[in-house]
Automatic annotation (TrEMBL):
UniProt GO MF annotations: transmembrane transporter activity
Biological role: Part of the tripartite ATP-independent periplasmic (TRAP) transport system.
Protein's name in the database: TRAP transporter large permease protein
Keywords: Cell inner membrane, Cell membrane, Membrane, Transmembrane, Transmembrane helix, Transport
Annotated ranges, domain TRAP C4-dicarboxylate transport system permease DctM subunit: 12-429
UniProt cross-references to InterPro entries, sorted A to Z: DctM, TRAP_DctM
Family indicated by similarity: Belongs to the TRAP transporter large permease family.
Subunit and interaction comment: The complex comprises the extracytoplasmic solute receptor protein and the two transmembrane proteins.
Gene Ontology cellular component list: plasma membrane
Pfam families (alphabetical): DctM (PF06808)
Membrane topology designation: Multi-pass membrane protein
Subcellular location, principal: membrane
Length: 435
């Protein structure tokens, strides 16, 4: 077989292995290793490329952002900042149709700016927001759908783990990716709030709800005490990066220290809890490092096979316009989103399309935002919508089935698709803060 054929078969093999349950990095690394061996008939070359991939990944300075931002996100969750922001938001929206849902979106957007994790958001707000909405007569499907939909904001609003992973795969600046994620993240949050308002007007039965019976205006002093810690963290981390005072790594370190101080002052952090956070940070960091290392050897395998160049030549010879290429790309991500998680989609698809996008003079930063938003939709689609599974597990409520969560999240997946189309049509929306 030719290298092109081996490369094509390897991509299909990786997808199939992941789908049947093989651990993603194992599938990527094992198939890539064997493919290089077959293409060059040289076992030593495969071993050496694997060594290089491991070394390049582990020694990359920017990789330090991952444990630091992971630690900060876990500390923030321990400090209960998510529930505080939700309480403040809900006081401003409770008397609006779908208001608690809007408050959940707003709180999730703010929470995402200090955690960067959709899983953390889904877990926190499933326990905080859903019971409140059910108490006030909201449709259970709408309640869980709002939490599922807004939880994905953690994937696009910086600091985002997916933006960091993309920056490694595409060799882009983590700081630039963070800057580019701000406007699309805000757009998505506003679109969700607008969609909730529209559903309240057009489909009131799907939304449900009634004015909160226990509504009391929150005193300004209490609002300040609940929001200042979160706003301080956002200012330190994102403000430090955007003003150029700190690199993303330094911002992660400063945010981690600030989060730890807040948790200690709030007496929400014990020595046992601190140790658990350290252990979980280590587990998550090791997992992501393994992913990045496997993606590195996979990229080298694709390069040896010449598959990305072959794909680029085919697209060029077929006279495909950018619009057609992006339609194909989005459809591919939506399809893979029904089978794979976001990280897998980024690691498998991006190395294939980068050599096609770069010669066109298109921004790889913009392409990263499009990729992450497109892959995010997979968090809400069956059978592998991770956010939906997390919400179901966090609720532990037999009245709400996994089917309810997926159906509730469907309108928000549609909103994401609309926002994605806008971002593709107007690249400047993603790049405005970089100019």
């Amino acid at each position: 077989m030719s290298p092109i054929e081996i490369g094509a078969i390897s991509v299909v093999a990786i997808v199939l292995l992941i789908y049947i349950g093989v651990y993603i990095p194992i599938a990527l690394a094992a198939v890539s290793f064997v493919s290089i061996w077959l293409m060059r008939d040289n076992f030593d070359l495969s071993v050496n490329l694997l060594k290089v991939a491991i070394g390049d990944s582990a020694m990359e300075y920017a990789f330090a952002t991952i444990p630091l931002f992971t630690f900060m996100g876990l500390i923030v969750s321990k400090a209960r900042l998510g529930s505080d922001i939700y309480e403040v938001m809900s006081t401003g929206f409770r008397r609006v149709k779908g208001g608690i849902g809007m408050a959940t979106v707003g709180a999730n957007a703010v929470f995402a700016a200090v955690t960067g994790s959709s899983i953390a958001s889904a877990s926190v707000f499933a326990k905080v927001s859903v019971p409140q909405m059910l108490k006030n007569g909201y449709n259970p499907r709408f309640a869980v759908g709002v939490v599922a939909g807004s939880s994905v904001l953690g994937m696009i609003i910086p600091p985002s783990a997916m933006l960091i992973i993309y920056s490694f795969v595409a060799e882009q600046s983590v700081g630039d990716m963070f800057l580019a994620g701000v406007v699309p993240g805000i757009m998505l949050a506003i679109a969700y709030i607008g969609a909730i308002w529209g559903m309240g007007k057009l489909f009131p039965k799907f939304v449900g709800g009634r004015p909160a019976s226990d509504y009391e205006r929150m005193p300004w002093k209490e609002i300040a005490s609940k929001t200042l810690p979160t706003l301080s963290l956002i200012t330190i981390v994102l403000g430090g990066i955007y003003t150029g005072w700190m690199t993303p790594v330094e911002a992660g370190a400063a945010g981690s220290l600030a989060g730890l101080v807040i948790a200690v002052l709030r007496r929400s952090m014990t020595l046992k809890g601190f140790w658990e956070v350290l252990i979980e940070t280590g587990h998550i960091t090791a997992t992501i490092l393994f992913l990045i290392t496997a993606a590195s050897i996979y990229s080298r395998m694709l390069g040896l096979a010449g598959l990305p160049n072959q794909l680029g030549e085919y697209m060029t010879n077929s006279d495909f316009a950018l619009f057609q290429i992006m339609v194909f790309y989005v459809l591919l991500m939506l399809f893979l989103g029904t089978l794979l998680d976001t990280a897998s989609i980024i690691l498998i698809v991006v190395p294939l399309f980068l050599p096609l996008i770069e010669p066109m003079g298109l921004s790889l930063v913009w392409f990263g935002i499009v990729t992450v938003v497109g892959a995010e939709i997979g968090l809400l689609t069956p059978p592998l919508g991770i956010s939906c599974f997390v919400i179901k597990a966090s609720l532990n409520d037999d009245r709400i089935t996994l089917k309810d969560v997926f159906l509730g999240a469907l309108p928000f997946a549609a909103v994401m698709l609309v926002v994605l189309i806008i971002l593709i049509a107007y690249p400047q929306l993603s790049l405005v803060l970089l100019n």
